[in-house]
Amino acid sequence: MNLLIEIGNTAVKAAWADGSVLGKTFRYQGEKVMQFIASLTDKQVPLVMTVVSARVITPEEQTILQASTQYLILLDPARQDALSPYGIPDYLSYDRAASLVAARYLFKGKSCTVFDLGTTLTVDYLDSSGRYLGGNISLGCRTRFKALNRYSKSLPLVDMPSDAKFPGDSQASSIESGVISGIIFEIDGYIRTNPENIVIFTGGDAIYFAKRMKNSIFVVCNLGLMGLAIITDDYVKKNIQ
Q1: Residues assigned a catalytic role
Q2: Are the CB atoms for 71 and 240 separated by under 8 Å?
Q3: Fold: same for 2-86+228-239 and 98-223
Q4: pLDDT for 96-154, tens place per residue?
Q5: C-alpha dihedral sign at 18, 23, 28, 32
Q6: Which CATH architecture has domain 98-223?
Q7: DSSP H helical segments within 50-126, as ranges?
């Protein structure tokens, strides 16, 4: 079994994988990331541990990780080699890159629009041959709520509603409706630019917005981890007998 770790901006996701197939998944939110990873390897040492991180893994952390696995693959802003065979630009964050690897695998021969709805809202395009065509980045849902509160002294901080009124009929519901409706309109606009594309939602808010879309949507919540499983499995096939 291989162990996949995704260290994001706000949380850590992990999963065991057998080849390209994901097994049990885990989520951690806190500062003791190395201790969390150690808890996963206490009873089972992975063949390969693949760690993708939004920040650079320190030499000390690398030593700890290396001691917990037989083989270690690191993907962070200082290490890009593992992605070079996949033809993905090195300016993309590694979670986005891994998601695109998985989208190519799941929808081979299909053009795709991949939405990652989390701290940021990212939109990426693949053509039918799997070639990356580019993408966009904007604020995620909760980030928009926080920005309205931070940069406007008169507006309160509100959270994602279970059901946003349209239009809002109070200050709070107007903020809720403005943010939620704005994201839906934004997504609709992207979809209309390439209506023939397969549309994929991933990220923490994927299900929330998929329920509110009129279009046919594929929701793959662990798309990035699936991509890491594919990258790891490719590494095993090429380098480990």
Answers
A1: 95
A2: yes
A3: yes
A4: 899 999 999 999 999 999 999 988 999 999 999 999 999 999 999 999 999 999 999 88
A5: negative
A6: 2-Layer Sandwich (3.30)
A7: 59-66, 94-106
